[in-house]
Amino acid sequence: MAEQQYEIDLGNLLAFNPHHQFVSPPSSREEIVKVAIDEGTKVVQAIADALFNLPSTEDPDGPIVKLPAPTTKLPREKPLPKPRPPTKWELFAKKKGIKKRKKEKLVFDEQTGTWKRRHGYDRVNDDSDIPIIEAKSTDEPGEDPFAERRKEKKSKVEKQEKNRLQNLKQAAKVGALPSHVQLAATSLPITGTQAIPKKVNKDELENVAGMAATATASGGKFDKKLPGEKPLKHEKKYRKFLPAVEGSGMGALEKQQTEKVLNKLISKNSHEILNVEKAVNMYNVKKEKKQRRQGRQSSTSSKLKTKKKDFKKTSKKGSSNKGKSK
């Protein structure tokens, strides 16, 4: 009954009723929700019945069935990715019958007697672990064998990078670039169907250079100029700051700037800044305090002098009395 009522696509786990229609239109939202739940329950039950009718294999977790190929074509936002063309190495390996086999990540290093990584940091047969390199009959005297090894390694890396770029160019021709390269490349669209934009002209480059220069703290004033580059034209006025590093004329500049600011303030707000009466009163108060302090100091010093004189007189009298008694 369910198979006749519903069209089921087990490849996509999809089922729907093409002849469904409301007998009477629902009058409220609650009724719509109830009808949708009832119909959804029937559809899920129909998919479950069809799945249990498929041939299955026993497993500790339960029966396992193999879904058939989907029959419903689902829409896609992006086109299917095109197959990537084979690289030069893949063509060579196919011609020679070389098959790719999985290698172990750890390899025994005979120099150190330990297990190390095949590639990457602290790898096996690392150049830094080789203290001595045996000389060959073809080596010329005076050459550094360690420098030659680094030079060979650098040339191999450059060759691999060149081959990688060549493979990307071949893939770009047929529109089969990898997705991460498509997202990273600003000049190539994701779909690979649009044309590469034209080259930037001289005026646009000058505008970009001007915007980049004005982004610095000095507004491009101290940036190194390229040969033939025109001086920047600033639309707005920029504040001028004193040099951050002390040098010749630094003190004179600061003094000049300070005097300029003070003169400007005094000329505008002289009646607020300078109050003559208040200044005279403060001067008189300070003068009186100073006189009192000096008077106290002079009185204490005179008292000390009189005390010293009295002490000397008493000491002399005592000594004379002692002499008479003997």
From TrEMBL:
Main location: nucleus
Any Gene Ontology biological process: ribosomal large subunit biogenesis
Biased composition (Low complexity): 317-326
Keywords: Nucleus, Ribosome biogenesis
InterPro entries xrefs: Ribosom_reg (IPR007023)
Places the protein is found: Nucleus
Entry GO terms, CC: nucleolus; preribosome, large subunit precursor
PANTHER family from the UniProt entry: RIBOSOME BIOGENESIS REGULATORY PROTEIN, RIBOSOME BIOGENESIS REGULATORY PROTEIN HOMOLOG
Chain's role: Involved in ribosomal large subunit assembly.
Name of this chain's protein: Ribosome biogenesis regulatory protein
